[in-house]
Design goal:
Elements: H1 6-12, E1 19-26, E2 32-35, E3 46-50, E4 66-72, E5 84-92, E6 98-113, E7 117-124, E8 138-140, H2 142-153, H3 161-165, E9 175-177, H4 186-196, E10 200-203, E11 209-212, E12 220-221, E13 229-232, E14 239-246, E15 249-254, E16 261-265, H5 276-290, E17 298-303, E18 313-315, E19 325-327, E20 330-334, E21 338-343, H6 357-368, E22 374-380, E23 385-387, E24 392-399, E25 405-419, E26 425-433, E27 436-437, E28 444-447, E29 450-463, E30 469-478, E31 480-484, E32 489-496
Parallel strand pairs: 12-18, 14-16
Antiparallel strand pairs: 1-2, 1-5, 3-4, 3-20, 4-7, 5-6, 6-7, 8-9, 10-11, 13-17, 14-15, 17-21, 18-19, 20-21, 22-32, 23-31, 24-30, 25-29, 25-31, 25-32, 26-27, 26-28, 26-30
Helix pairs in contact: 2-4
Length: about 525
C-alpha cells in the first residue's frame, strides 16, 4: 500500500468525500498539458494492474499496468502518441487540507478520436521492457542484474542494493542470463530475477523499476461497511511444499506430513545453473518465502482507494467473527466509481496430484534436441577497464558440450587509445584456455589516439563432450593506455551440440591489487 497518513485512511473510508484528479500530459514536441477533473469525461478514468497472470499464486510475473480515460480536447489523436502521462489523486482531509497519492507514470500507446473527446490508453514504465533483448549477458547479483536491465531500457532502478538484498537470500547469488536461456525481451529477464527473489516485477509510482513481494501482514481491514460486495472462498490457500524442475533434476522443499498445496515451478532459468547444493538452496529460500503467504481467495468491490496496490494483504472481517485475509493479485480502480480487488488461488480439495508426466516428457524432448541446437555463451563487461602494461582480464567465458564438437569465439571491443607522445601504442591480446596461455597465437594492434573497434576471433577445433573449457582473454598495452567503457565488450562462444547451461564447477577466481613497491638504494661496503 502506498504510504498515507491516518487522516487519509479516515477520509477515504468516510461516507462522503471531496477529491480530485490532476496531472500532466507531455507531448513528444515538448508541449505540456495540465490536466484537471474538467478534462476527463465523467467516469472514464480507470487504472488496471495485477501481479499474477494465471489463476493461482506464482512468482515472477511482470505485468503491464494500464491507465485508460477519455480526454476532452480538440487536438488530433496523433498528437498524443508517445506522450508522457503523470497522474495523481488528491483527497481533502478533515480540516480542509489535501493529501496527494501519485497514480503513476505512463506512456500513451493508443488514441482514438470520438466526436467530443479522444479515448486514450497509456501503459506504465514496464512498456520499455517489452523491447527485444539482444542476448547480451546480464550478470552479477540480483541488484547488479536489475541495474543492467534498467540501464539497457532507459529506466531508473527504484530500490537500493540493501533493499533488494533484504528481499530474499537468493539476491546475493552471482548469476547470469544469456541467449541460451531462451528469453526474448527485457521483461522476460526481469521476470527471471523476480522469480528468483520470490516476488513480482513492477514499477513504483515514480515509474522506477522495482521487485515487490506479496505482503505478510494486512495493510487495511475492510469491514462490511467499507465494501459493496465480497465473495470470499470457503477454503484457504496454504502452501506446504515447493518443487523446482530443472534439466538435470528436481529440487523440493517442505512436504512431510503437511497436506497443503504444492507450488510447482517447471521453468526457472536462474535455477538451471550452479551446483546441486546451490539449486537446493534456491528452492529452500523460495519456500521460506512461500510458506508465509497463507491467504484466502476473494473478490471485493468497494469505494475506490488508489493507495491500495497489487501484492497488498487485506483483512475481510466477517459476521461470524473471523477475518480472512486476501492477497491482492488483480486491481481495477475507477475514479468516482467502484474499485475491484481480486485474489486468485487454487482449491486444495480440487488439486490434481498428477505425477508431472507432461512436464517430464517435454523435458526429455528438450534434452534430446540439445545436440542439434546452436548455443551461445555470451559476455559483456559491466565495469570500465583500463589497460596498461600489466595483463588486464577483459573476457571470461566458461562453456561445455554434450558431444564432441567444435566452436568459435567472436568478440568486438569498443575502446579509446591514449598513446604517450606522438607514436601509436601497441595493444596485445593474450588467450588463455583453462588458465594455460596459448603461446602460438598473440594478436597485436597498433593504435593512434582516439576511438577504435577491435574484432577478435579464436577457433576451437575440438571441444570434448562433457568437459568444461574456460576461455580468458587478457589485454596488455605498451606505449600508452587503452580505456574500455562499461558494456563496450560484446563476446560470445558458439557451437552446435553444446550444453545450453553450464553448472558451476566450484572454481572461484580472485584478483588482488597490490600498491606499487618503492625500492630504496642500499650501499654495501666490502672490506
Amino acid at each position: 500500500m502506498y504510504p498515507v497518513s491516518e487522516r487519509y485512511k479516515t477520509a477515504i473510508r468516510a461516507r462522503a468525500r471531496t477529491d480530485r484528479v490532476a496531472g500532466t500530459l507531455t507531448l513528444t514536441d515538448g508541449t505540456v498539458l495540465a490536466l484537471g477533473v474538467q478534462d476527463f469525461m465523467s467516469g472514464s478514468l480507470t487504472l488496471d494492474n495485477q501481479c499474477v497472470t494465471g489463476e493461482e499464486l506464482a512468482f515472477g510475473c511482470v505485468y503491464l499496468g494500464q491507465a485508460a480515460f477519455s480526454l476532452r480536447t480538440s487536438l488530433s489523436r496523433y498528437a498524443f502518441y508517445g506522450a508522457k502521462l503523470v497522474l495523481r489523486y488528491e483527497l481533502q482531509l478533515p480540516g480542509g487540507s489535501w493529501e496527494a497519492v501519485p497514480l503513476g507514470v505512463y506512456t500513451v500507446a493508443e488514441a482514438e478520436r470520438k466526436a467530443l473527446y479522444v479515448s486514450i490508453k497509456a501503459y506504465d514504465n514496464i512498456l520499455p521492457l517489452q523491447s527485444r533483448w539482444d542476448g547480451t549477458a546480464i550478470q552479477g547479483n540480483a541488484c547488479e542484474m536489475l541495474a543492467q536491465i534498467a540501464d539497457g531500457c532507459g529506466l531508473e532502478l527504484g530500490q537500493t542494493a540493501e533493499e533488494i538484498a533484504a528481499l530474499n537470500p537468493n539476491a546475493a547469488l552471482a548469476c547470469q542470463l544469456s541467449a541460451a536461456d531462451g528469453l526474448t525481451t527485457w521483461r522476460d529477464c526481469v521476470a527471471a530475477i523476480a522469480q528468483l527473489l520470490g516476488g513480482f516485477g513492477t514499477v513504483d509510482r515514480a515509474g522506477r523499476l522495482v521487485i515487490r513481494q506479496f505482503a505478510k501482514t494486512s495493510c487495511v481491514s475492510l469491514g462490511a461497511d467499507a465494501r459493496s460486495e465480497a465473495g470470499v472462498s470457503d477454503f484457504r490457500c496454504h502452501y506446504a511444499a515447493l518443487t523446482v524442475a530443472t534439466q538435470s533434476g528436481s529440487y523440493a522443499a517442505g512436504g512431510g506430513q503437511d497436506t497443503g498445496l504444492t507450488m510447482a515451478i517447471a521453468d526457472m532459468p536462474l535455477a538451471e545453473k550452479g551446483l546441486p547444493d546451490t539449486r537446493q538452496g534456491i528452492t529452500d529460500n523460495l519456500f521460506a518465502e512461500l510458506r508465509q503467504l497463507d491467504y484466502t481467495p476473494a473478490t471485493v468491490t468497494m469505494p475506490g482507494d488508489p493507495a491500495l496496490e497489487p501484492g497488498d494483504r487485506v483483512a475481510l472481517p466477517q459476521a461470524d467473527g473471523t477475518a480472512p485475509e486476501m492477497l491482492v493479485t488483480h486491481f481495477v480502480w475507477h475514479y468516482h466509481g467502484r474499485q475491484t480487488l481480486k485474489s486468485v488461488g487454487r482449491n486444495p480439495y480440487l488439486t490434481n496430484n498428477s505425477d508431472g508426466t507432461t512436464e517430464k516428457l517435454l523435458r526429455k524432448v528438450q534434452n534430446s534436441a540439445e545436440s542439434k541446437r546452436l548455443v551461445y555463451y555470451s559476455f559483456t563487461n559491466t565495469a570500465a577497464l583500463t589497460v596498461r602494461t600489466a595483463e588486464t582480464p577483459a573476457v571470461s567465458i566458461a562453456f561445455a558440450a554434450v558431444e564432441d564438437t567444435s566452436a568459435m569465439f567472436l568478440a568486438q571491443l569498443l575502446l579509446t587509445a591514449e598513446p604517450e607522445g606522438g607514436d601509436p601504442l601497441t595493444l596485445e591480446v593474450r588467450y588463455y584456455v583453462n588458465e594455460v596461455r596459448v603461446e602460438n597465437f598473440t594478436p597485436q594492434q597498433r593504435l593512434l589516439a582516439g576511438a577504435h573497434t577491435l574484432a577478435l576471433f579464436y577457433p576451437f577445433a575440438s571441444v570434448e563432450a562433457n568437459a568444461a573449457k574456460r576461455l580468458s582473454v587478457r589485454l596488455v598495452c605498451t606505449g600508452g593506455t587503452v580505456k574500455i567503457a562499461p558494456y563496450s565488450i560484446k563476446a560470445t562462444v558458439t557451437g552446435q551440440g553444446m550444453a545450453s547451461e553450464l553448472p558451476w564447477d566450484g572454481t572461484l577466481q580472485f584478483e588482488e591489487l597490490l600498491m606499487p613497491l618503492q625500492l630504496t638504494e642500499r650501499k654495501v661496503i666490502l672490506e
